[in-house]
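Worked example 2:
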Amino acid sequence: MPHRKSAFKHLRADEKKRQRNRAIKSAVKTAIKKVEQAIAEGDVEKAQMLFREAVSKLDRAAQKGVIKKGTAARKKSRLAHKLNKLIAQQQAAQAQETQAA
């Protein structure tokens, strides 16, 4: 346990920061999982909407220092790649349908 009054203050502040950081990280992870689930289901519109929300949460977490900027950028890039892959697959499927008809 700390001996100085200021150390006790730091202890309390650190606990508040830890709780805030955990909540933000949890929200980011949930947002990412929702996007990935929408992509797995093949729902492009829902995935695009959830992607925008996830990007916003990632940016906010990076801005607050909860995660590093590069980590946020990497996660956004990977999600965007998955989403673009889904969009390309759907466009290819639509092109084949129009050619077959």
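The first helix runs from residue 5 to 41. The mean pLDDT is 96.
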